Structures
1.
Amino acid sequence: MTTQTATSAVPDEQPLLEVSGLSKTYKAKGGGLRPRSRPEVKALHDVSFDIVRGETVGLVGESGSGKSTAASCVLRLVEPDAGSIRFDGIDVRGLPRGELRRLRARMQMVFQDPYGSLDPRFSVRELVEEPLLVHGERDEATRRDRAVQMLERVGLSAAQAERNAHAFSGGQRQRIAIARALVMNPDLVVLDEPVTALDVSVQAQVLNLLTSLQRELNLTYLFIVHDLAVAQYLCHRIAVMYRGEIVELATAQELFARPLHPYTVTLLMAAPVPDPDVMDARRSVFQDPATAQGDGTAQGCPLRPRCPVGAQRAACATSHPALREVAPGHKAACHFPGEMLTTTTAPLGGAPSSL
Ligand code: ADP
Ligand code: MG
């Protein structure tokens, strides 16, 4: 497999998607407590990024960092507390219901779980026809033709289209979910961990499919994934998230060659390498979050309790670093960007192995 190059997207074009200052706080779920007494979860804090046509931007971060919340806000499945979302120049948050529906046809989503998102009562063709029906395509023959065509494009035969979705393997089901998303001919596809539930060998096939579909259909992808190696393969640019914030944003090439934020460096170091001593050395650089002191959220840098660069620094204790451009096109939210690589003795060994 080849890695995408950052040059295939046009950087100075008007972005297809512009997200600015997005914030979202949830009331923690359940526990029998009344809503007012439940603790709050800050899922997103001042998140800004954009995507130009034909580009893939990755949101990468550990579980709970706010990736799915960001995606849900873009599609207005979740209402953010603050911030703006512009799609093709249109203010998505200000749209009335009817117009939102029309706009939604141009943004589709593929989820991690290809089992949950495909209703077992329907044939694969019916599942792929459904979005066409919902968006007003009344002609049965047209729906059928478009569904079968799209299924063939993702690697399923016309005969397979008549079978029930449960007859298929995980990888094939994800192909069906992709066909269902693409049958509306969308501009933007939000892919939320689309290969996470699949075997590694199948992951590569689905990623290859997504890459060729993007080229052929001029698709724009917002690609959510917790694995940097997978992000590196598919993404032109990558935004690294930590606790609801983007802490670093750069082209994939630049991010792997010169990671500026200590958290990105840890993610790179967490990638498996063959030598167990190297793995040990890497692990010891960052404290485990469970043993780190303080929660780092009151003031200062949220990463400070785990960060070897910030541990002794006053600035990191007292001021929350904003995301700023440190090098051309390369942003980081760190008071001491780039220092992590010079303070640690653990070998980085370049980018994690690709799939
Ligand atoms: P990710 O996709 O990166 O794993 P999420 O966006 O799903 O992260 O979650 C971010 C944070 O918000 C987590 O702490 C999660 O528990 C919390 N969260 C997500 N959805 C809800 C919800 N509907 N109600 C309450 N808390 C939520
Ligand atoms: Mg998620």
2.
Amino acid sequence: MPKIISAKTIVTCPGRNFVTLKIETGDGVTGLGDATLNGRELAVESYLRDHVVPCLIGRDAHQIEDIWQYLYRGAYWRRGPVTMSAIAAVDMALWDIKGKIAGLPVYQLLGGACRTGVMVYGHANGETIDDTIAAAREYVANGYKAVRLQTGVPGMSDVYGVSKDKLFYEPADSDLPKETVWSTDKYMRVAPELFAAARKALGWEVHLLHDVHHRLTPIEAGRLGKDLEPYRPFWMEDATPAENQAGFRLIRQHTTTPLAVGEIFSSIWDCKQLIEEQLIDYIRATVVHAGGITHLRKIASFADLHGVRTGCHGATDLSPVTMAAALHFDLSIPNFGIQEYMRHTADTDAVFPHAYTFEGGMLHPGEAPGLGVEIDEDAAARFPYKRAYLPVARRLDGSMHDW
Ligand code: EZ4
Ligand code: CO
């Protein structure tokens, strides 16, 4: 058996922080897992280093499901983003090892390809509607079939999804959480204007998406969904926080705009009701934050039974290791919907050389055995950890809102 003889964490900041787990077997086969939890990176790193790695030594790397169960049930303290990101990292690394030993890309181990490639969407953003549309045109010119649109809101200085550097939007950009101001009224007026202008300028062939980023109440989300309906968005994302899954019933009663949610979910229990009652159309749970490939497959199978498709989170805080794992998963499941794709910086790509490729609006994980991603540890060491937080949002009267 391929016995696990060592495992270590690697923290690096090639433009942003990443936590990576590297597992090695007695035969010298190595596997990588991403454990990055934006703004709380070191909590997961400690969880792995101090509490998980000692339990892995000597185990059979082939026993992916058993090790998953061991870490999930064995902790006693179940679920939550820290635990599930740590388990995810182990899971990814073990799939990577299994693929390398088999000489097969991971998607082959998951049942083989169900499609020729994975449709992705890019992020177009700008301070004004015109700037956003200009950015979207660039994506379309580069072959993208789907583009997410976010725009500045007049009277608000910082808006989620809008950045000065259009190519590499990175919200975790300050040493302590930046304080931003939020006005639901102003936002609710601009978003439909953006979509009206975008359809006029870009036509109807391209899929257009929008991320509300947890800012609305269910009835407000119903209103916005209705206002966006004439422009046929591919989805409205994270319209309202989803701790209360029943809240989505209210949105559903008011709009036919497709709903996506779940980038912050850590297990199937965060979306069981949403899926069972068909309150959403796309589940956004990801490999790194929802317990790895092993657990995400369960979520996807459950979703498939209820006509819900996947739309995995794929922002820059998910490392190339997660991106590769997501692509193997996306390629292999029947109910794939779309994959988010924010390009990483050149420094990040240099630290994580990878086999996945982009062509004609589609990503493909490549044919390298395992996940098809490596880590250049010398390069990683040149970029030490740098504390970075996501912003917070306050309403005009100073009270806290959801960022
Ligand atoms: O704000 O990943 O859809 N993408 C997003 C992201 C999230 C970040 C938080 O870490 O909502 O931009
Ligand atoms: Co989002």
